[in-house]
Known about the structure:
By secondary structure, the chain is of the alpha/beta class.
Amino acid sequence: MATVLGFYYYWTTSNHEGSAIIVKDGKILAAIEEDRITRVKHDGNIPVWNSIKEVMRISGVRPEEIDAVAIPWESPRVKYIKGLTEVLQGKPFKPKRLIMYPYWRLNDMNIRSTLNYFDIHAPIYYVNHHESHAASTLLTSGLEDSTVITLDRSGDRYESVGVWKAQDNEMKKLTIINGCTFGTFFAAATYAVGFKINDGEGKTMGLASYGDYSKTYNKIKDLLKVKGLKIKSKINDGIIKPRIDINDDRLFALYRHLKAEKNNPIIKLTRRYKNEDIAAAAQKLLEDRVKELVKNSIKKTGEARICLSGGVALNMKMNQRVREMPEVEEVYIFPNPGDPGVVVGATMLVCKNLMEQEGREFHNERMKHTYYGTGYKDKDVTKALEEYRLDYQKIKNPEKTAAELINNDKVVGWFQGRLEFGPRALGNRSVLADPRNEKIKDKINKYLKKRDWFMPFAPSILSEAKEEYFENAVEAPFMIMGFDVKKDKLKEIPAVVHVDNTARPQTVDKKVNPSYWKVIKEFEKLSGVPVILNTSFNRHGQPMVRSPQDAALHVVWGCVEYLIMHNCLVDAKVDLSKMRL
């Protein structure tokens, strides 16, 4: 048996939530983000005690059963030696790398202290950050041979892009690009149009659909250039990142214009052009340059099946453009491609190596779901409802009841099974609504999500109906791939179609999540539409709900009209359309 604990944290304050995972013989037993437990959004600072404790509890793995610990960063000693080697080789001296060594060493001591706290004495394996990203997508893809590409803002030693040729589950590195490339460029654009980096890139993507890229594209196209497997960039990290944490939106705006405007060429465009036109150009340039890299990578590897990971791979429009390339045969995108999911790759890679040392074969199987978090018993549900003094009734058919409420234009909180691992609610911690009613978006936005007006909602669709609604449809269980909605279906599901006639669907397989599949099927019986609106169950500024208490509190806050938690129905006794802030 090879049992590996992995956990991710960030060296300093960050918008990347920490996470932990337990893998046994290549199978994920449990995985969860720290902020789901602490209720502090993007909580990622070391130590991530809560998530480590929770995955051990869920999996039932005892400290003495852990064979190894995986960390998706290079070790402090490796960082120091590589920095010193670069100096001895005559490369430009970067004092920050050497000065940071004591800080890195302190974090290493914190890791060991955390493990001692849990009485875990297994050896620690540090895995390069981008190699961890690459392994997360390859080793969960079911594709033993592929072209693996990682697209991130920054990793170890400022690495931002990597390309590997995968053969028989082994990765041969073709290139690792240091410096500011795709992630930093799109962060700079996000910063320029007024959103916060590591949090607002999705908003930039959403806003882009309302703009005209041609107005500013030629003015920014030279900021990124791809030649072969090399990338030239005129964007640097210092022009987009405040040296202090700015939480006040007004101070953030002031800093952006007084400090960063001097150097950021994208910010300068905001004087003359609309934000949506700038966002559109940035989105277009990102798509174009990533497609160039993918095309060049395929030429180098000879493998047209693509595995993507890294935070930039959260951009579903870019993913759609890659999938539509004539050179590409298939695309697999790891469902948690940002840094909270990087721990999967490091842990899988260490587990694979341990298994092979024991003479056993690692089986690369396609990930079908992300339900690796906390699950609860019926008694936990009733206890939480009684704690918050919420009236409830037991129901025999939760799925049918949910479908009936949705068909009557009600906003329903849906809480079943184990918590999702990753940024998307995929039918276990979801808020559900009728996709036929475009005005339902305003109701959800005003009292639950408080999203910007231009941000779309996503559909969940029966897997067997995907070809009926989407062009060139393929299985897309993770809401991470864009598709063009067929013209004859645009008016049928307006609440989940973006202004550019695209959608980011979740295809729901009956075998993977039979309860959620049944909700959609029951709704289809009532409406004739095998689609429902699905958004994550969390109030604006809150992490996704994890526990029955979290869900009950959202009822108290008036975020949903009904809550169905296991077989309990709660009528919040509010009509969101009539509520006033």
